[in-house]
Amino acid sequence: MAARTLRIGLIPGDGIGKEVIPAGRRILEALPASLGLKFEFIKLRAGFETFEQTGAALPDETVAILKSDCDGALFGAVSSPSTAVKGYSSPIVALRKKLDLYANVRPVKSVGGAANPIDMVIVRENTEDLYVKEEKTYDTPEGKVAEAIKRISQRASSRIATMAGEIALRRQKIRSAGSPSIHTSPLVTITHKSNVLSQTDGLFRSTAREALSAGRFTSVAVEEQIVDSMVYKLFRQPEAYDVIVAPNLYGDILSDGAAALVGSLGLVPSANVGEGFAIGEPCHGSAPDIMGQNIANPIATLRSAALMLEFLNEEEAAARIYAAVDANLEEGKLLSPDLGGKATTTEVLEDILRRL
Ligand code: ATP
Ligand code: MG
């Protein structure tokens, strides 16, 4: 079988992004040759440091190379200055727009043997809702009033729900292949607040329902949950969820809440996904408090690399990475300080590479 070559953009960004992205590269390079995968890496710039050096947080060159030369990418983290800096805005937000990466996908999984086992994926719509950032402030006799547009479209709701359905099917396929899980059949939970926002969230709800009623999703159970009760249940009974699909704002909040359930931001991966393109990105930020000490947990990035591979249809390679990471966590001997251990970034990585 001819080897498939994947060209992967590497965007370390700022802070611990510079320490964890090289770990992501190492694990891809260490995948066994029998998988028939080869990698070419292209180093790309973005972030606050890039902004200070070049005047652009996301240089045009980075976007152009991602579009024309890459199959996927790994993105580290970018610092967000605590006070607004003129001309600076988040490069990952811009990148999602420019590449139409309409889904933000976050798997949240507990380590084997946890008291409350969790194995869910949150699929967050990434292009609209309140995050269209159309805000205005005006004066009235009673003082200032500020307003924001919440935009929900049929197109965006339909494609995000379809992706959630596909992910549910893929997870079921992986389970059928023998991968251990707390779930036995695929379930998608549609999250909304249509009892209050009958038009916007109402459209999300009905569109998602319709998309998930397509013939190929007959094996996928579909349920709905109002977002506030969802938060309650997410904390009380997290094992009940398989795939959650949500509009942008609720998805943002739910995914950070879910990350808290498994203990450390250093464990949780994400992917920004569009048509035929995926950027793996650890959920954590640039963590300036621990940068430069070689103690950042690389696992969120290793899992993000695996998640990127899943969306590039390399499920087996992804499964190898997940299994090596799980084995490290289950043994629990070489853990980074955020998990109560003493191991360095390098030691955690070496242990996982050995298990690969
Ligand atoms: P940013 O503005 O870039 O988001 P932040 O100060 O909010 O930076 P985060 O990266 O969001 O920092 O991290 C929040 C906390 O979690 C910090 O205390 C950080 O040290 C810790 N943390 C984040 N990522 C990791 C990691 N990979 N390993 C260990 N600890 C981490
Ligand atoms: Mg942060």
Automatic annotation (TrEMBL):
<keyword id="KW-0028">Amino-acid biosynthesis</keyword>
<dbReference type="InterPro" id="IPR024084">
    <property type="entry name" value="IsoPropMal-DH-like_dom"/>
</dbReference>
<dbReference type="InterPro" id="IPR019818">
    <property type="entry name" value="IsoCit/isopropylmalate_DH_CS"/>
</dbReference>
<comment type="similarity">
    <text>Belongs to the isocitrate and isopropylmalate dehydrogenases family.</text>
</comment>
<dbReference type="GO" id="GO:0004449">
    <property type="term" value="F:isocitrate dehydrogenase (NAD+) activity"/>
</dbReference>
<keyword id="KW-0520">NAD</keyword>
<dbReference type="GO" id="GO:0006102">
    <property type="term" value="P:isocitrate metabolic process"/>
</dbReference>
<feature type="domain" description="Isopropylmalate dehydrogenase-like">
    <location>
        <begin position="7"/>
        <end position="352"/>
    </location>
</feature>
<keyword id="KW-0457">Lysine biosynthesis</keyword>
<dbReference type="GO" id="GO:0051287">
    <property type="term" value="F:NAD binding"/>
</dbReference>
<protein>
    <recommendedName>
        <fullName>homoisocitrate dehydrogenase</fullName>
        <ecNumber>1.1.1.87</ecNumber>
    </recommendedName>
</protein>
<dbReference type="Pfam" id="PF00180">
    <property type="entry name" value="Iso_dh"/>
</dbReference>
<keyword id="KW-0479">Metal-binding</keyword>
<comment type="pathway">
    <text>Amino-acid biosynthesis; L-lysine biosynthesis via AAA pathway; L-alpha-aminoadipate from 2-oxoglutarate: step 4/5.</text>
</comment>
<dbReference type="GO" id="GO:0047046">
    <property type="term" value="F:homoisocitrate dehydrogenase activity"/>
</dbReference>
<dbReference type="GO" id="GO:0005739">
    <property type="term" value="C:mitochondrion"/>
</dbReference>
<keyword id="KW-0597">Phosphoprotein</keyword>
<keyword id="KW-0460">Magnesium</keyword>
<dbReference type="GO" id="GO:0006099">
    <property type="term" value="P:tricarboxylic acid cycle"/>
</dbReference>
<dbReference type="GO" id="GO:0009085">
    <property type="term" value="P:lysine biosynthetic process"/>
</dbReference>
<dbReference type="GO" id="GO:0000287">
    <property type="term" value="F:magnesium ion binding"/>
</dbReference>
<keyword id="KW-0560">Oxidoreductase</keyword>
